[in-house]
TrEMBL record:
Classification via InterPro entries: Cys_synth, Cys_Synth/Cystath_Beta-Synth, CysM, P-phosphate_BS, TrpB-like_PALP, TrpB-like_PALP_sf
Name under which the protein is recorded: Cysteine synthase
Top-level taxonomy: Bacteria, Pseudomonadati, Bacteroidota, Flavobacteriia, Flavobacteriales
Pathway where this protein functions: Amino-acid biosynthesis; L-cysteine biosynthesis; L-cysteine from L-serine: step 2/2
Similarity remark: Belongs to the cysteine synthase/cystathionine beta-synthase family.
Length: 295
């Protein structure tokens, strides 16, 4: 039997960093989510949200779907919705990179751009208004249990399997928080001593894919009890680490991945030994029109 594209979501490589950690008693492992068919960790959540909604008969090809996104979830939803013959409108800030917008349109989605000065919060407000007033259906990745359950069913078990249960720390950027919530839930069931570390931007920083949400926009799926520690990184630190990943480790990824690895190294500096797993959430090619790699 041949695998379909959807069968190839997940089971991404877990590779050891070779140059970044100087302490030989600490292993830093990087989970390469850019190897998913849609190029990011969001393939997992998008597939689970769509598949579960179809199984519950909550949506059909006649449903008008809408979702606010900063990019990766939108690409994943566009790709997978097309495979199920679903029509979807994706809403994102107008300062999103053109690669993201063009990729969503290539998959057949309608893309609506909202003013950049109101950010992803403004895109969420726009989508929610269409739901209230025009009968659209929204997956609502920020409040959808199928988001974090995707990682409980796949990401967590893969990490546990591939580290042979030796993982001591898990580090993930926090956006919708689905990745960290689902992976934490699984890993804590296997070993309550595994430390879960979330990554947030400093107050003066803007890092695509990593957010420190205002209280009214805090994702409903977020449970602070599932995160043991939060490490903040600056925009400059995240960008610099993304460039270092490409140059020193051969890993081409975006700024949120740089932020996660930066936090992992800050964590490593406090440890004598350990096995740290950090999520590399996407590929760097969708940032080429930005100035991230102009060095």
């Amino acid at each position: 039997m041949y695998k379909t594209l959807l069968d190839n979501i997940g089971n991404t490589p877990l590779v050891a960093a070779t140059t970044l950690v100087k302490n030989k008693n600490i292993t830093l492992l990087l989970k390469l989510e850019g190897d998913n068919p849609g190029g990011s960790v969001k393939d997992r959540a998008a597939y689970n949200m769509i598949k579960s909604a179809l199984e519950r008969k909550e949506i059909s090809p006649e449903t008008r779907l809408i979702e606010a996104t900063s990019g990766n979830t939108g690409i994943a939803l566009a790709m997978i919705a097309g495979l199920f013959k679903l029509n979807i409108e994706l809403v994102m800030p107008e300062n999103s990179t053109k690669e993201r917008v063009q990729t969503m349109r290539a998959y057949g989605a309608k893309v609506t751009l909202t003013p950049s000065d109101i950010g992803i919060e403004g895109a969420r407000d726009y989508a929610e208004k269409k739901v209230r007033e025009e009968g659209y259906v929204m997956f609502n990745q920020f409040g959808n249990e199928d988001n974090w359950k995707a990682h409980y069913k796949t990401t967590g078990p893969e990490i546990w399997r591939d580290t042979e249960g030796k993982i001591t720390h898990f580090v993930s950027a926090m956006g919708t928080t689905g990745t960290i919530m689902g992976t934490s839930t699984y890993l804590k069931e296997k070993n309550p001593d595994v430390r879960i570390v979330g990554v947030q931007p400093t107050d003066d920083s803007s890092i695509p894919g990593i957010r420190k949400w205002p209280e009214e926009y805090l994702p409903k799926i977020f449970n602070p009890a599932k995160v043991d520690e939060i490490i903040e990184v600056s925009e400059a630190e995240a960008a610099d680490m993304a460039r270092r990943l490409a140059r020193e480790e051969g890993i081409f990824a975006g700024m949120s991945s740089g932020g996660a690895v930066c936090a992992a190294l800050k964590l490593a500096d406090t440890l004598d030994k350990g096995v740290i797993v950090a999520i590399i959430c996407d590929r760097g090619d969708r940032y080429l029109s930005s100035d991230l790699f102009e060095v």
